[in-house]
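Saturday, quiet lab. Running sequence design on the structure tokens for the scaffold JK sent over.
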């Protein structure tokens, strides 16, 4: 091998060595970057959790979103005050935690937007779990509810079968609507019932539905039993309930998905209220709506 050949060999070896070192350095840098990114993400997540925990520790009020036309759970009384069974429960929870209760009436169709934006802390207003199990962080259920049908007192509708060919109204995005439209396998009977209607109309609130029933614009209303009893009792002999219920369901308090910190505090307080009899005492104030018999918390 001549000196030029030797020199070429030395240069080639040097280039290969540099290449190997370059590749190794690049991998090390990549691994370092990935490790740093992971650590930053973990730190950010930990910081968020700590911030959430800190916010709950320093909480001074609870903003409850509710439908102001949904008796007996939340509504405006004759004095212009927001009252109701759920609001009474929320008030007692706040009293025991040193919070101020903020009663925030909401458009029911906008409840998810209100919750996600932070305008409200929870939805507490005869809120049905069924069909929404994965959409919110829930307390344990506290009320077993039934969906019933209300008709005019002089109507020829006597059973659910008589609803065939009739116009039925219910509130938009309500538990009654869910009972009549949920396409799960165990709801086949209710889907068949709804299919037999001439029309299933959705209205903004149940006051509108009962006005439509009174005027003859609709033949029947699918509604929660508590609301039904309130409307039937408050309007004299104008309406009556059918004996057969469409379905039964459970109510709970719904929080933004993942907000277990606040949910756990509220749940713990509700459990204490159930254990010392406070929930039962509050329900007795709404005995006309059958609420004492509908309670399931602590049972």
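Result came back. Writing it out in full:
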């Amino acid at each position: 091998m001549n000196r030029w050949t030797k020199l070429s060999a030395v240069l080639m070896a040097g280039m290969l060595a540099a290449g190997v070192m370059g590749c190794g350095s690049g991998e090390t840098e990549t691994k370092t970057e990935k490790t740093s990114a992971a650590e930053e993400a973990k730190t950010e997540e930990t910081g968020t959790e700590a911030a959430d925990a800190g916010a709950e520790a320093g909480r001074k009020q609870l903003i409850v979103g509710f439908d102001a036309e949904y008796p007996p759970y939340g509504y405006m009384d004759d004095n212009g005050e927001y009252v109701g069974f759920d609001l009474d429960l929320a008030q007692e929870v706040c009293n025991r935690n040193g919070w101020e209760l903020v009663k925030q009436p909401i458009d029911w169709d906008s409840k998810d937007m209100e919750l996600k934006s932070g305008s409200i802390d929870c939805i507490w207003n005869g809120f049905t779990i069924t069909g929404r199990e994965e959409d919110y962080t829930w307390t344990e259920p506290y009320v077993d509810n039934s969906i019933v049908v209300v008709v005019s007192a002089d109507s020829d509708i006597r059973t659910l079968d008589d609803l065939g060919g009739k116009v039925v109204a219910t509130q938009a995005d309500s538990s009654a609507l869910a009972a009549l439209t949920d396409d799960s396998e165990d709801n086949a009977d209710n889907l068949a019932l709804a299919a037999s209607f001439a029309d299933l109309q959705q209205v903004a609130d149940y006051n509108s539905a009962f006005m439509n029933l009174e005027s003859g614009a609709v033949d029947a209303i699918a509604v929660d039993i508590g609301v039904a009893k309130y409307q039937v009792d408050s309007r004299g002999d104008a309406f009556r309930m059918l004996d057969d219920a469409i379905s039964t369901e459970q109510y709970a308090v719904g929080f933004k998905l993942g907000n277990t910190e606040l949910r756990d505090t509220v749940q713990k307080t509700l459990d204490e209220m159930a254990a010392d009899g406070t929930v039962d005492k509050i329900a007795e104030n709404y005995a006309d709506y059958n609420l004492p018999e509908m309670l399931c918390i602590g049972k």
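Notes for JK: Residues 193 and 270 are 37 Å apart (CA to CA). The two ends are 97 Å apart (CA to CA). Ask whether to fix the surface positions before the next round.
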